[in-house]
Design brief:
The protein is of the alpha/beta class and 171 residues long. The chain is built from six helices and six strands, in the order βββαβααβααβα. The chain has a four-stranded mixed β-sheet with strand order 3-2-1-4, sandwiched between helices. A two-stranded parallel sheet has the order 5-6. It is globular and about 40 Å long.
Length: 171
């Protein structure tokens, strides 16, 4: 498999986008380009990785702008793989509107597995495409943020950016 990738500085640190011919297979947030590249190599050890900023520039503009203001929707083609359970969780996460949150237990109930709260949290942690599948919008039942694969500080910041963007929209 050949994967093109690009890394840019963004409002919440650094962002990596990686894409197959079918769509984005990885969107990562991090503290530096070296760590992001190493994570990509670990996630796709048998792939041929090729840095190609021009191939990903339109998608990168969307993501960088979203991280700064969350005012526009993301329209990103995805090429992600996961178990059937993960796919159901990820699909449910994509139905959470920007500026809103849900809980791990509500997601578990929504996919028909009310006792699978920990498995839902694990599926969120396995999400390969930050923002496109908005696992940052899932919080604990007590209102606590819970975890976030790309750092809880970023989760808090993303929720704040989305809340601010949505508070100015006419409904």
């Amino acid at each position: 498999m050949e994967i093109a990738f690009a890394i840019e500085r963004a409002a919440l640190g650094w962002v990596l986008l990686a894409s197959t011919a079918k769509g984005l297979c990885s969107i990562q947030l991090g503290d530096g380009p070296g760590a992001l590249r190493r994570d990509l190599e670990a996630d796709f050890p048998n792939a041929t990785l090729r840095e190609d900023r021009s191939a990903l520039s339109a998608f990168m503009v969307q993501v960088v702008n979203y991280l700064a203001s969350a005012t526009d929707m993301l329209w990103l083609p995805l090429d992600i793989r996961g178990t059937a359970f993960q796919q159901r969780v990820w699909s449910a996460l994509q139905r959470i509107p920007a500026g809103k949150t849900s809980t791990y237990s509500k997601i578990a109930r929504a996919i028909g597995h009310p006792k699978a709260v920990r498995a839902v949290a694990s599926a969120c942690a396995a999400n390969p495409v930050a923002l496109a599948i908005p696992c940052h919008r899932v919080v604990r039942s007590d209102g606590g943020l819970g975890g976030y694969r790309w750092d809880v500080t970023r989760k808090r910041a993303l929720l704040a950016v989305e809340a601010k963007a949505c508070s100015g929209k006419v409904r």
